[in-house]
Amino acid sequence: xxxxxxxxxxxxxxxxxxxxxxxxxxxxxxxxxxxxxxxxxxxxxxxxxxxxxxxxxxxxxxxxxxxxxxxxxxxxxxxxxxxxxxxxxxxxxxxxxxxxxxxxxxxxxxxxxxxxxxxxxxxxxxxxxxxxxxxxxxxxxxxxxxxxxxxxxxxxxx
Length: 158
What we know:
The chain is built from 5 helices and no strands.
């Protein structure tokens, strides 16, 4: 029973990582809600060289450039509005958002950890109580945690 308690502790630690990964995926999707969405091709004629081989318009830095925000920033610098700048978090305070590739790699790592836990659980033998607890752990991993990883993987690949 002692081994099962240790396995449960390890499993709980991996579940914490799983929840953190799920939160990262949600924050990534909220920041880029429809990144893959095919928008209508309403580009001006002067952007001829900004198309890929399939005819889709490539993004440039000028597509998302906010002139008003830049002018406001310059006005604040000129007037010395340091209190507004102090209220805004600096780049070092903002948590960096991981990319889709990094999140997919984390999904693979967590799958590997859960599979290692399952392999270790297969080696544990004991009485009826041990068998019941072992079955509960295996069921939770297979039915809940691995299903969550599959859902996250599907969200990231779509």
